[in-house]
Design brief:
single chain, six-stranded parallel sheet, 13% strand
Length: 294
């Protein structure tokens, strides 16, 4: 705890599309903030506002009461937490929160490794994309021990609105897989509905206006639908990361002997987009495979 501000000292690793805004909310709330990102230029705006740059993830953890990681892939999480310059090498009695969408198995391992070093750990993946991060309206799914959740809740509330303790270590990641599976089939339905509208000679904007208030209404329809109509494929959440999430979900489903045909189809389509060079576009770029821009 900072003697000057009375606020928890926070370390933040991973300042991508969402991480920058999430870290920014913590800094704006008065938390002393230490940051690290592989590309140092992405930290510049936060450093200009008072954050302290660190050269390694371990340096972020040194002297931090809470360390948050928001990186790309499970392998990145493992490196940032367990590597020779990682968070667990320097954390001392800290609360460690991984907000990356990663594997439940890895989340359980990190919780065990953290406990062995006198720390607490939460897996707390998020939903809401860039807009939710920017407006601090994320939905946060939190796995871990109840006392660790209680400790982390005031900090998570700086970044999100819907924050649910889902159970023990790994359950946050399992819940995020449920979220991604629902999105996968829903975005396919949005693309198909708009492709049908165009082929039938309808005004896609009017179609969205008509159906978004009915039983078809969803975030994907109301937020991604207008982007699809405009041909706006800028990422709020990149295809390459969504494909990673689907692969994790389907691997878990295989382990549970559960068949998910909608997710299988979505993975095939998104893999096709990656092969075509669209890996870093937003998930709404799936519409390219249904006739592209109107």
């Amino acid at each position: 705890m900072s003697e000057a501000t009375g606020q928890a000292r926070i370390g933040f690793v991973g300042l991508g599309i969402m991480g920058q805004s999430m870290a920014g909310h913590l800094l704006a709330a008065g938390h002393p903030l230490r940051v690290y990102n592989r590309s140092a230029d992405k930290a510049r705006a936060l450093v200009d506002k008072g954050a302290v740059w660190c050269d390694r993830p371990g340096d972020v953890a040194a002297g931090s009461d809470v360390v948050i990681t928001m990186v790309g892939y499970p392998r990145d999480v493992g490196e940032v937490w367990l590597g020779p310059d990682g968070v667990l090498q320097q954390a001392r009695g800290a609360l460690l929160i991984d907000m990356t969408t990663s594997s439940p198995e890895l989340a359980q391992r990190l919780a065990s490794e953290a406990a062995a070093r006198g720390c607490r750990a939460l897996d707390a993946p998020v939903s809401g994309g860039e807009l939710g991060a920017r407006e601090a309206r994320l939905s946060i799914m939190v796995g871990g021990e109840a006392d660790a959740f209680a400790q982390g809740l005031p900090i998570l509330q700086r970044m999100g609105q819907t924050i649910v303790h889902t159970g023990g270590p790994g359950t946050g990641q399992h819940t995020k897989m449920c979220n991604q599976l629902v999105i996968a089939s829903t975005i396919m339905g949005v693309c198909e509905g708009l492709a049908y509208a165009r082929s039938a000679g309808l005004d896609p904007q009017l179609v969205l206006q008509c159906i978004s208030g009915g039983a078809a209404g969803s975030f994907q329809l109301s937020v991604m639908g207008p982007k699809i109509v405009k041909g706006d494929f800028a990422p709020g959440f990149m295809i390459e990361h969504f494909l990673k999430d689907l692969s994790i979900a389907l691997a878990e489903a295989d382990r549970m002997r559960l068949q998910l045909p909608g997710a299988e189809q979505a993975r095939k389509l998104y893999a096709q987009l990656v092969q075509q060079g669209h890996a870093r576009e937003g998930t709404q770029a799936l519409s390219r495979l249904y006739g592209g821009r109107p």
